[in-house]
Each structure stands twice: as structure tokens, then as C-alpha cells.
Specification:
It is a single chain. Helices cover 26% and strands 30% of the residues. It is α+β, with helices and mostly antiparallel strands. It has 4 domains: 100 residues, 3-Layer(aba) Sandwich (Rossmann fold), CATH 3.40.50; 70 residues, Dna Ligase, domain 1; 231 residues, ATP-grasp fold, B domain (D-amino Acid Aminotransferase, Chain A, domain 1, 2-Layer Sandwich); 67 residues, RNA polymerase II/Efflux pump adaptor protein, barrel-sandwich hybrid domain (OB fold (Dihydrolipoamide Acetyltransferase, E2P), Beta Barrel), CATH 2.40.50. Strands 13-12-9-10-11-14-21-19 form an 8-stranded antiparallel sheet. Strands 3-2-1-4-5 form a 5-stranded parallel sheet. A hairpin with a 5-residue loop joins strand 9 and strand 10.
């Protein structure tokens, strides 16, 4: 059994691994950037080592700094979490060549399955049907245009070495290909350190169904459960559930068997997830994530299996503790997981909302679990993923699980940053979700979020200079939570959060005045206009990256560009004027 594990990650997943390791009597080592010096995962670990830098590239993707921490700490195992180095074969080889256990799959499997192109070939060897697409990397816009013309539009441009929707762009026509391709490569490079891409057909109304599996180094592989991850925005998941509901009889078993065959085709061991697209009672292999998934807890709550413990035991050379039959016999009830992201879902825009969490109250109760990476007083940085934590709920059946999740979300309070909770509640309360009529496109194309208000994020400033404040009052002995628009100096209640931002807008045009402001803190990655250029309403003037997501900042007024105050690489704060249009 491993004695000391270094977690080469941060946030919620680092906390998750630390807790299981400590329960197993294994010492834990954290690493941290300058911004994470006092983060929760650092506070919980037995030891912690500085990586330096602020951005992921400067810290959590700095191989030399992490290797140095491994050597200094004497760790005999490394858990990569997800993102960063979790699907990087070179990093896995570096670790194993040091004589340190990599708590993940063998490098060869990462190469074949971590690369979405070669994984499609492996799936075909395993007998799983694949979505029509390229089986080689694409290197030019012309290749994508030719594919779209041959197979039909829209098409999906995807990061070959990514996952979680990062570096994925859906293109509706040939004239949008070049810009989407450039953006996909930038996002992929920023999050995964590589920018290779491929293209595949984009299905019209699919569900996203995935299979959790675990293999050991003795040739045993079992699939643990299916998960439905169809409630998504920006191709990133909001709500997951296990097992996947409303599947045609026999489909779940077929998916599980196909996933196991694909894994065995590449000699896979440790935890992994095979993702499928499901439409019209047919399923297609999408990709394999050669790591632990963000949504793994929803599988844990219906099986009682600690998947991180299984990962550690497999990396220590042990056999899987259960057979396929025993695993399936363990399943009970229904699980739902909700990702709580620091984003403002107002109007369905889901804009990143970095900032300091001033208050955090997590829910409790029967069948309720919360996996978090932050506490009150911690800062959600613009430089990293915006996942605050995950609410995981168990119910004896799906209806119970939905009702319990709604109750738990209503109890949860997050102040200082906007969160996706209002959108999560809208999804869970919608009859389409209850009837399993939703798809991966449903949130963005069908769900009405026009009335969503994420007031918990911060005070809001109106055009008249009034500030929205929240306070508690009693009327005839009955307690009420109220909002009031008051002058900024009014003292009815102290503001609950930081100075107001314009994070509820995709761009701040000051009522069409022509001043285009940054809706959140971030970094300019592209400027699309120059002084003297004519623009129309809706034209993208700059691309702003925050929390590893690119945001198109659009003109809200037609006219001529009078000023451009930023350039690629500029760091901006919320409210900074980027472009002025006359």
C-alpha cells in the first residue's frame, strides 16, 4: 500500500483525494500556486509545497516544480485529479520513471484513449459504433469545411487531448470555421497544454450517457454504473445522475460491455469513463476520459463504492475487490449531482464570476453530501476552473432524488460570487427534466432562463446609481428576506459582497452609450476591431478569457470604433472600458 500521496491538483478534487487518503492512513502532500497559498486543499494536507506562479501554466502545469515537490516530500504516489496533468502521458511516464506510482492508467492507454482521435479507433476495435468524424487530427480550416460540406452542418470542433467541453466549438456554417478553430485551439492549449483538434458530426438532440469503469493491473475490468450528463451549458455539465434513466431495455448493459471491451483493447487499468451519445435508442462512442471524472460521486452514492479508494488500491498493485456481478448487486436507488459553479446564469449567459466567497452555507440532511473546494473567505480566481463544489444527493427513486436535490439547493447559500444554483433549480423543476425529454442542447436552446436572478453574487448597481442591497426584516413578527434599491451610502444593511460588477451582462454598453466594458475580471486573448472600423450591434469586439472560458464581448451599439483600450494579453477588471464606439 502507498504511504504518501502527492495530489498534483487543486480545489475540490484535491480535497476529495486528501480525505480518502487520510481515512486509509496515507499521508498527503498538497502543491499550490501563489494564489492558492492558503487554499482549503493546502490547509487539509499533511504537507504542502509551493509551485510559484499564478496561472495554471506557471504552477499546476509546471512539470519541473511538481517533480521537485515529489522529490522533496518523498511521496511514493501521485494522484493527478482531473484536468491539468491527469491525461498527460508524458507526465505519467516522468512519474513512473522516478519509481513513483501514478494513480491513473498506464501512459500507453492515456496516449491511445486520451487522444480522442485514436480512442475512436480503439472503440471500433472493441465493437462500439462511433459518431461520424475524423480519425486523424485536423490542421486547417479547409479540412473542417470539407467535412461539414460532406456530412452536413453543424459540426463540432473538439480538443483531441481534452474533456469536459473545454476546447469544443460547434460551427453552424463554413464562414465561422476559422474563428471557431482558433478559439478551440487556444482553450485546449490553456487548459490541457496541447492544441490538437479533430472534428465530428454534431447530432441534433442527443443525450450524453457515460459509463464509469475501473480496471486493475491483473486484467480485471468492471463497469460500475451509467450516468446521464445531458444537462449542459457551453458543452460542460451542470447536472449528472446515476443510473442513466429512461434507456431502452438492455441498452445500459450493452454500453457497459462496450466500455469494458474498449478499455481492455488498450490494456486499461485504474478509473476511467467511456462517454456515449444516445439518440433514437441508438448509442455511439464519443470519447474516453482516462481519469477520474468530476461526477464520480453520483456513482458512489448508488453503490457505496469509494472510487478514489479503489484508484489507490489499484495503483498499489491490488486486485479489484469485487466482480462485475457483485458491483451491480450493490446498486441501489438514484443519485443526482449538481455542480455549483461561480457563474452568473442570468439570461442564460453563464458568465464567469470570480471573487471572494464572503459566506457559504452548505446543505445537510438524509442522503445529502457536499464535496467542496472552498470555504467562506476563500477566493475563486479568474485563472482556474470555477467549480466551487458539488452537491450529491441520493434517493430511493428518481422522483425522490429530484425533490431532495431541490430542497438541498434551496438551503444552500453562497455570497460574494454569483453561482449556477438558480439555473440548477430551474432545470430540476422543469417537466422536461422530470420526463427525461432534455438533451445536451436543451439548456441553451429550450430552457427559459430570462427571469433568472443571481442576486446572491453581489450587490447590483442600476443606471440611476442606486445599489441593490439585501436584508432581513420582521413585519408583525414574521421574518422576510427583502431586496431594496437604495443610494450607495444608505445604511439599511451592509453590502453582502464585493463592489458590484456588471457580470450579469455579456457586455456592458451603458444602455447603448458605446462604452463596451468588461463584464468580469479576465485576460484579453483577442481584439477583433481597430480604431475607425465600423461595427454593428452584436459584432464581437474582443474575446475575454476568464476561468479558462472564452467570452465573446459584443457591441451593443452600431457605429465607428473611436478607442481600443486593450490588446491581446491585457489583464482587465470588471467594469474596465475595453472599446468605445461613436
Amino acid at each position: 500500500m502507498l504511504k504518501k500521496i502527492l495530489i498534483a491538483n487543486r480545489g475540490e478534487i484535491a480535497v476529495r483525494v486528501i480525505r480518502t487518503a487520510r481515512e486509509m492512513g496515507i499521508a498527503t502532500v498538497a502543491v499550490y500556486s501563489e494564489l492558492d497559498r492558503n487554499a482549503l486543499h493546502v490547509r487539509l494536507a499533511d504537507e504542502a509545497y509551493a509551485l510559484g506562479g499564478q496561472t495554471a501554466a506557471e504552477s499546476y502545469l509546471n512539470t519541473a516544480a511538481i517533480v521537485d515537490a515529489i522529490k522533496r516530500s518523498g511521496a511514493d504516489g501521485v494522484h493527478p485529479g482531473y484536468g491539468f496533468f491527469s491525461e498527460n502521458a508524458d507526465f505519467a511516464r516522468t512519474i513512473t520513471e522516478m519509481g513513483v506510482a501514478f494513480i491513473g492508467p498506464p501512459p500507453e492507454a492515456i496516449v491511445e484513449m486520451g487522444d480522442k482521435v485514436s480512442s475512436r479507433k480503439a472503440a471500433l476495435r472493441g465493437g462500439a459504433p462511433i459518431v461520424p468524424g475524423t480519425t486523424e487530427f485536423v490542421t486547417s480550416a479547409k479540412e473542417i469545411i470539407d467535412f461539414g460540406n460532406d456530412h452536413g452542418w453543424p459540426v463540432a470542433i473538439k480538443a483531441a487531448f481534452g474533456g469536459g467541453g473545454r476546447g469544443m466549438k460547434v460551427v453552424q456554417s463554413a464562414d465561422a470555421v476559422q474563428e471557431a478553430m482558433d478559439s478551440a485551439q487556444r482553450e485546449s492549449k490553456a487548459f490541457f497544454g496541447r492544441d490538437e483538434i479533430y472534428v465530428e458530426r454534431y447530432l441534433t438532440w442527443p443525450r450524453h450517457i457515460e459509463v464509469q469503469l475501473v480496471g486493475d493491473t491483473h486484467g480485471n475490468v468492471v463497469w460500475v454504473s451509467t450516468r446521464d450528463c445531458s444537462a449542459q451549458r457551453r458543452h460542460q455539465k451542470l447536472i449528472e445522475e446515476a443510473p442513466a434513466p429512461a434507456l431502452k431495455k438492455g441498452i445500459e448493459e450493452e454500453m457497459g460491455e462496450a466500455a469494458v471491451k474498449a478499455a481492455k483493447a488498450v490494456g486499461y487499468f485504474n478509473a476511467g469513463t467511456v462517454e456515449f451519445i444516445y439518440q433514437d435508442n441508438e448509442f455511439y462512442f464519443l470519447e474516453m476520459n482516462t481519469r477520474l471524472q468530476v461526477e464520480h460521486p453520483v456513482t458512489e452514492v448508488i453503490t457505496g463504492i469509494d472510487l478514489v479508494e479503489w484508484q489507490i488500491r489499484v495503483a498499489s498493485g491490488e486486485k479489484l475487490p469485487m466482480t462485475q456481478k457483485q458491483v451491480l448487486e450493490r446498486r441501489d436507488g438514484h443519485g443526482i449531482e449538481v455542480r455549483i459553479n461561480a457563474e452568473n446564469p442570468a439570461g442564460g449567459k453563464f458568465l464567469p464570476s470570480p471573487g471572494t466567497i464572503t459566506a457559504l452555507t452548505t446543505p445537510d440532511g438524509f442522503g445529502t453530501r457536499f464535496d467542496g473546494g472552498y470555504e467562506a473567505g476563500d477566493t475563486v480566481s479568474q485563472f482556474y476552473d470555477n467549480l466551487v463544489g458539488k452537491l450529491i444527493v441520493w434517493g430511493k427513486d428518481r422522483d425522490t432524488a429530484i425533490a431532495r436535490t431541490i430542497r438541498a439547493l434551496e438551503e444552500m447559500k453562497v455570497e460574494g460570487v454569483h453561482t449556477t444554483i438558480p439555473a440548477d433549480l430551474a432545470i430540476l423543476r422543469h417537466p422536461d427534466f422530470a420526463a427525461v425529454k432534455h438533451s445536451t442542447k436543451w439548456v441553451e436552446e429550450k430552457l427559459d432562463l430570462s427571469g433568472i436572478d443571481s442576486a446572491a453574487g453581489s450587490s447590483q448597481t442600476g443606471e440611476d446609481g442606486l445599489v441593490m442591497r439585501q436584508t432581513t426584516v420582521e413585519v408583525n413578527g414574521k421574518r422576510f428576506e427583502v431586496k431594496a434599491w437604495v443610494p450607495e451610502t444608505a445604511g439599511i444593511a451592509a453590502p453582502r459582497a464585493k463592489k458590484p460588477t456588471r457580470a450579469s451582462q455579456s457586455s456592458s454598453g451603458k444602455g447603448g452609450s458605446g462604452e463596451i466594458s468588461a463584464p468580469m475580471q479576465g485576460t484579453i486573448v483577442k481584439v477583433n476591431v481597430e480604431v475607425g472600423q465600423e461595427v454593428q450591434v452584436g459584432d464581437t469586439v474582443v474575446v475575454l478569457e476568464a476561468m479558462k472560458m472564452e467570452n465573446q464581448i459584443a457591441a451593443e451599439k452600431a457605429g465607428k470604433v473611436a478607442k481600443v483600450n486593450v490588446s491581446a494579453g491585457s489583464s482587465v477588471g470588471a467594469g474596465d472600458v475595453l472599446v468605445v464606439i461613436e
